[in-house]
Structure formats: structure tokens, C-alpha cells
């Protein structure tokens, strides 16, 4: 029977998970982020499109669930200035600044995953592009709000308070 | 004669030995349509033609010619770098074309160098980076897979914003704003405490979603603002549980919803019914009996519905029916 025979000399990697020497695990509990929303602003739409492809692929590779990717409408800021240094009020020149937006909403991240993803994505932010990150952290009600304080304190002799 | 020929030859020699600028000048004068710009390169080439190529750099073939199709691109562009036309084996053209021409090629193209390129972030490069970063990520707890479960176990939501932009300073004063949101149904409050809290908080409470929103930005640091927000929540909670002496003077105008007991509507209804009974000479019916009767109950419910929910078709018809029954008016 060939099936049950183990080939001599073959090394089987049994319980030996590769531990990354750079990873350190701490005891404090992770903060949970229900939603992390990235708003990327730039002057060039092509740059933002490439960045969107990069950010979406990075999120998929790291196992982060993407809720929505959308492009809010662009904002154009226009100004009209005098064309000449002195007089000639009737001749003006107009400039405009276009800001394109790209919004990426991610769901359900832990603090370590969020830190890793945001640092990766922010280090590769192209020049001339700005980003705003809105993080929504969820947490339990703190201990001191579960009950009014005077219910939990031990019974103390009440002194007469002058009203 | 010989002198003239010699002079002519000398003139010719001097012309040739002297700067070809004379020849260029002659050429330009001969062809007046040629602009000054085209004259310069011709001058350099003509200058070099007679000289040894001391300063002519040997043009090495660009790296692209030695690149295999299946090479490892991540080693060509490992980090963000400017566009190098000799390192990118793509025939890219960029720029506005001249009339009846094509966009300029990649050699010496400033437009290609100016724009940020993503040559260091090709899909295989991203996959490599993410594979290395995956060890540092942790998994989301699988028990919290929906928004309702998150809300049930973790009712308080804290929203903070970070800003990244290029500039002289990395700080942004808007980054210290902290917004706390909590649903009042998750807090341990009784009826009186909830009404008092809503009165204390005013605009920050939304009735439709039952969410209290506290936005703090009065402290200079984000952590301080978060602590202040939690402190505000604690103070509001404890104040709403306390009952002050002057709260007993709460009048009808302060009530959030309509209460029928001890209101004008109840007095009027009872008054009317007593007078009806008196006119019919029925034995004295007490107020408690009247209050407990179905007619009055019906009337009470319809009035409460009208006042609290507003005027809808349903409520108005209910009120009509109850009044008709009360006054024994047959339609």
C-alpha cells in the first residue's frame, strides 16, 4: 500500500507558525472603529482615480470591508482680479481653483488594523493631495454612568443641609 | 590679377576660418523666413563638424532596451520617484500637440515629470506590501457583524477627525473637535430623569432618532475634549436623577406631552356630564364613576391622541365619534 507510507526524508512542517519578530502583542483591549471615512481632496481627477484604485486594492488585500466609494461633486473657487498693475479697471483676468473629492468609507476596523491601513495609505499620498479621516469609535457606557453615584456610595449619616 | 585672386582666396579663407556665424548670417540673409531659433542648432552642429568630439557624451542606450517583459517591476520603482523616461519602457506621449502634430514624446517631457506617478504602486507591489503588513492587523470580533449588535453592546460613539495635508505645519486646529453620540434608551434613566435631561440638553437631542449629540472643542487637545465630553455626560446624568424643590411647581406649559388628568378638558367634560345628569334628574352620579365609564375614557383617549400626535384624519374622526357618544347626539 503506497497510500499510507510516508516518504522518507520529507520534512513536514507541523505546529510551527512563523512568528514575525517585529510583531508585539500588548494586553490592552483594542478600541473598535465602527466606521472610518477617508475624504481625499486634490486638483487633478486622474491622480485621485489612481489613488482610489490603490486604496481600494490595499483595503481588499488587508481584509477590510469597504462600505462605499463615491465621488462627491467638485468645487470650483473662482476669483476675478485686475489684469494690470495700475488702472485699466475694465480689463480683468479670472482664475479658478478646482477641488475634486473622493470618499472611501470602511466598516468595522480594530485600532491596529486602522493604524496599519491609515499609515500605509497616508505614506503613499501623492504630492498635492490632502486627506481628512473621520473615525467613529464605539465603546461601552463608562462605569460611573451605569447608576447615580449616590446609590453606590455606602450609607453615610446625612447631615442637615440648609436650603 | 594674381593679387586679386589671392585677395579673393584670402577673403574666402578668412570667411571659412572665421566664425560660421558669417555663414549663418549669410544663410539667414539668403533665407529670410528662417527664424533665429533655428539658426542656433545649425550653428552648433556646424561648429562641431570641424572639431574633435571632446565634449560629446557617448549616448548609452536607455535601460528600457535591456528590460525583459517579465521583469520584476517592483525593483525598478521600489519607492515614489520622478518619471525617468529611460527607465519606463512605455511609449507615452503627453502634452498639447502643435498644429497638425502629435503630443510630445516622453524624452525631456516636463509634464510627465511634474505629475505624481503611481509607478511604485502597481498591483503586484501593493499585494507585496499588504502581505508584509497583514501580520500587524487584527481581526474584527465576529460576534459584532451588524450595526444593531454594535449599538447594543457598545452604545457610545465617539467621532474624531484627522487632517493630512502638505504645508509648513502638520497641525490642524480642527483636529481637536470631538463628537459624542449616545442613545438615551441605553442609559439607565427613569421617566422624570429622561424628561429633565432632554430639557437640560435642548437642541442637542434629536427626538426622531433618540440620539443625544455632544460636540466639544473648548479644550486645546483632543484627549482633553474627549474627557470633557464624558464629564458632561456624567454631570447631565446625575443632575437629571436629582429632583429639585422647585420642580414641583412645573406647570401645564412646561409639560412635554399632554396629560388629561387635571386638565381643562377633563373639568369641562365632567361638568357637562354632571349637568346633563342633573337635568335628567338622575340620582347623584359621582365623579369617579363618570371617570371610569367608557364614554369618558373614549373621549380622553381621542383628546390625548389629538394633542400629542397632531391632527390626522383618523384622530379627528375618533374625536367626532367620542363627542357624539358623550353628548348622545345622533347624527
UniProtKB/TrEMBL annotation, chain A:
UniProt keyword annotations, A-Z: Mitochondrion, Ribonucleoprotein, Ribosomal protein
Any one Gene Ontology BP term: translation
Domain Small ribosomal subunit protein uS10: 37-134
GO molecular function: structural constituent of ribosome
Cytoplasm is among the record's keywords: no
Compartments where located: Mitochondrion
Alphabetical list of Gene3D superfamilies matching this protein: Ribosomal protein S10 domain
Domain of life: Eukaryota
Family assignment from sequence similarity: Belongs to the universal ribosomal protein uS10 family.
HAMAP family registered for this protein in UniProt: Ribosomal_uS10
Xref: PANTHER family: MITOCHONDRIAL 28S RIBOSOMAL PROTEIN S10, SMALL RIBOSOMAL SUBUNIT PROTEIN US10M
Name listed for the protein in its UniProt record: Small ribosomal subunit protein uS10m
The organism of origin for this protein: Cuculus canorus
Amino acid at each position: 500500500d503506497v497510500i499510507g507510507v510516508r516518504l522518507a526524508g520529507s520534512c513536514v512542517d507541523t505546529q510551527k507558525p512563523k512568528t514575525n519578530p517585529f510583531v508585539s502583542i500588548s494586553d490592552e483591549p483594542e478600541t473598535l472603529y465602527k466606521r472610518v471615512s477617508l475624504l481625499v481632496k486634490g486638483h487633478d481627477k486622474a491622480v485621485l482615480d489612481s489613488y482610489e484604485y490603490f486604496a481600494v486594492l490595499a483595503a481588499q488585500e488587508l481584509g477590510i470591508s469597504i462600505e462605499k466609494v463615491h465621488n462627491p461633486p467638485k468645487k470650483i473657487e473662482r476669483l476675478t482680479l485686475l489684469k494690470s498693475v495700475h488702472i485699466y479697471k475694465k480689463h480683468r483676468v479670472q482664475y479658478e481653483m478646482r477641488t475634486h473629492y473622493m470618499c472611501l468609507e470602511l466598516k468595522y476596523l480594530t485600532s491596529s488594523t486602522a493604524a496599519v491601513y491609515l499609515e500605509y495609505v497616508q505614506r503613499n499620498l501623492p504630492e498635492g493631495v490632502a486627506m481628512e479621516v473621520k473615525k467613529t469609535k464605539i465603546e461601552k457606557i463608562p462605569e460611573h454612568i451605569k447608576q447615580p453615584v449616590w446609590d453606590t456610595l455606602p450609607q453615610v449619616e446625612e447631615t442637615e443641609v440648609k436650603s | 590679377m594674381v593679387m586679386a585672386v589671392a585677395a579673393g582666396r584670402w577673403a574666402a579663407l578668412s570667411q571659412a576660418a572665421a566664425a560660421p556665424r558669417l555663414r549663418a548670417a549669410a544663410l539667414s540673409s539668403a533665407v529670410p523666413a528662417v527664424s533665429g531659433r533655428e539658426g542656433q542648432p545649425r550653428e552648433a552642429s556646424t561648429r562641431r563638424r570641424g572639431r574633435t568630439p571632446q565634449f560629446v557624451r557617448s549616448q548609452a542606450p536607455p535601460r528600457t532596451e535591456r528590460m525583459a517583459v517579465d521583469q520584476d517591476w517592483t525593483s525598478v520603482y521600489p519607492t515614489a520617484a520622478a518619471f525617468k523616461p529611460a527607465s519606463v519602457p512605455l511609449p507615452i506621449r503627453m502634452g498639447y500637440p502643435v498644429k497638425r502634430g502629435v503630443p510630445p514624446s516622453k524624452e525631456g517631457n516636463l509634464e510627465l515629470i511634474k505629475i505624481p506617478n503611481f509607478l511604485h504602486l502597481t498591483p503586484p507591489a501593493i499585494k507585496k506590501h499588504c502581505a508584509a503588513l497583514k501580520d500587524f492587523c487584527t481581526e474584527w470580533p465576529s460576534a459584532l457583524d451588524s450595526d444593531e449588535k454594535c449599538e447594543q453592546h457598545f452604545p457610545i460613539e465617539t467621532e474624531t477627525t484627522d487632517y493630512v495635508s502638505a504645508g509648513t505645519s502638520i497641525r490642524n486646529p480642527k483636529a481637536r473637535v470631538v463628537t459624542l453620540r449616545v442613545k438615551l434608551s441605553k442609559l439607565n434613566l427613569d421617566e422624570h430623569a429622561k424628561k429633565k435631561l432632554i430639557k437640560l440638553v435642548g437642541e442637542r437631542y434629536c427626538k426622531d432618532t433618540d440620539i443625544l449629540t455632544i460636540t466639544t472643542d473648548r479644550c486645546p487637545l483632543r484627549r482633553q475634549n474627549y474627557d470633557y465630553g464624558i464629564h458632561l455626560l456624567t454631570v447631565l446624568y446625575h443632575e437629571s436623577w436629582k429632583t429639585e424643590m422647585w420642580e414641583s411647581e412645573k406647570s401645564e406649559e412646561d409639560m412635554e406631552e399632554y396629560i388629561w388628568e387635571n386638565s381643562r378638558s377633563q373639568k369641562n367634560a365632567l361638568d357637562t356630564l354632571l349637568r346633563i345628569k342633573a337635568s335628567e334628574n338622575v340620582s347623584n352620579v359621582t365623579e369617579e364613576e363618570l371617570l371610569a365609564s367608557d364614554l369618558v375614557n373614549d373621549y380622553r383617549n381621542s383628546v390625548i391622541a389629538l394633542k400629542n400626535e397632531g391632527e390626522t384624519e383618523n384622530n379627528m374622526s375618533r374625536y367626532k365619534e367620542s363627542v357624539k357618544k358623550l353628548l348622545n347626539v345622533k347624527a
